[in-house]
Specification:
This protein has 338 residues and is mainly α. It has one domain. The chain has a two-stranded antiparallel sheet with strand order 1-2.
């Protein structure tokens, strides 16, 4: 276990240093090519952010790649990196269209969904055909499994679409999506280390254990990349991650979720991601049903809090505290019941 921790921490440090060094370079490059954020007219309290450099996600994506190459991980860990890059490319195309045509709408919704679904389908089929991962999911706080059989394919696709878009929707304030993702990954990795210790005691196949270790190392790489990026993305942000970064982070979170088979745990620790999506779904549905009435002052939820007069940096701290409290409780439950 000490060896795993050491390798994970080294990976985190490499990703952190790479991201901290690359982000200023990305800021210079995207500024040179006028890759700047366009603010929607109805988000009037953010109009002062108009023109802030965007596509900052490039920095931590490259940082994760570098760190994972040094980690010498393989299997699903490398696949997670590839998926993160793939979602980053989809987001990058979306950002490029926004910048090129100077508008806040890039790819059409259906185009994004098709691209996201195709990537998710590849992973879903891979999981279904991979006997080491299997078609089962874990019940939180136990080692009990539920075998979904063929239905693991549509289930994994749903998880990918839900997770990536939830992370994307949470990206609306300086440092919000990055800090929540950082904490989510931290608690998932801690819980997974507890589970790996349990697997060792149960005499489970070393290959299965190695795959789990690989995902932990990937999680630490993402944490390091995000930490380095947060130096420049925390309030007041010098650069935004854009869809390049938010979809990449969503892909990373989704990969860790499905490869570790914690689909039922993700919405618990990732509650702030879930609330972001739910607030939008509720707002849109209620608006259509009532002919124009709203539940929230503005959706996603963090914008509702802003309209209530809460400063964005405080909202980010609230999201971080909520994630930390729930993550800590989940970790304690795993220590007690596993």
């Amino acid at each position: 276990m000490i060896k795993i921790l050491l390798q994970s921490l080294i990976t985190l440090i490499i990703a952190f240093l790479a991201s901290a060094l690359l982000t200023p370079l990305v800021i210079k490059v995207v500024s040179k090519y006028k890759a700047r954020q366009t603010i929607l007219h109805y988000v009037d309290n953010h109009l002062n952010k108009q023109g802030t450099p965007t596509m900052g996600g490039i920095a931590f994506i490259i940082a994760v790649i570098i760190a994972m190459l040094f980690s010498k991980s393989y299997g699903t860990a490398l696949l997670s990196v590839a998926v993160m890059v793939a979602y980053g490319i989809v987001g990058g195309l979306d950002d490029f269209i926004k910048i090129r045509f100077k508008r806040n709408l890039g790819l059409k919704a259906y185009q994004k969904i098709i691209a996201q679904t195709l990537i998710a389908l590849i992973i879903a089929v891979y999981i279904y055909r991979n006997h080491e991962i299997g078609s089962s999911i874990l019940i939180p706080f136990t080692s009990i499994e539920i075998n979904l059989g063929f239905f693991i394919i549509p289930f994994v696709i749903f998880i990918f679409l839900a997770v990536t878009n939830s992370v994307n929707l949470t990206d609306g304030l300086d440092g919000l999506a990055s800090s929540v993702t950082l904490l989510f990954m931290f608690f998932i990795c801690v819980i997974q280390l507890i589970y790996i210790n349990h697997l060792n005691n149960e005499g489970i196949s070393q290959q299965i254990i190695d795959e789990n270790i690989g995902q932990v190392i990937f999680g630490f790489a993402v944490m390091g990349g995000v930490l380095g990026y947060l130096i420049f993305n925390s309030y007041p942000a010098k650069i935004f991650m854009g869809d390049t970064g938010s979809l990449a982070l969503g892909g990373a979170v989704a990969c860790v979720t499905v490869f570790l088979r914690i689909e039922l745990l993700m919405p618990i620790i990732g509650i702030m991601f879930v609330l972001s999506s739910l607030s939008v779904i509720i707002q849109v549905a209620y608006f259509k049903i009532t002919g124009g009435k709203r539940v929230f002052l503005m959706a996603p939820l963090h914008h509702h809090f802003e309209r209530k007069g809460i400063h964005e940096s405080k909202i980010t701290v609230i999201y971080m505290i909520a994630t930390s409290v729930i993550g800590t409780l989940c970790t304690i439950l795993y220590l007690i019941f596993l």
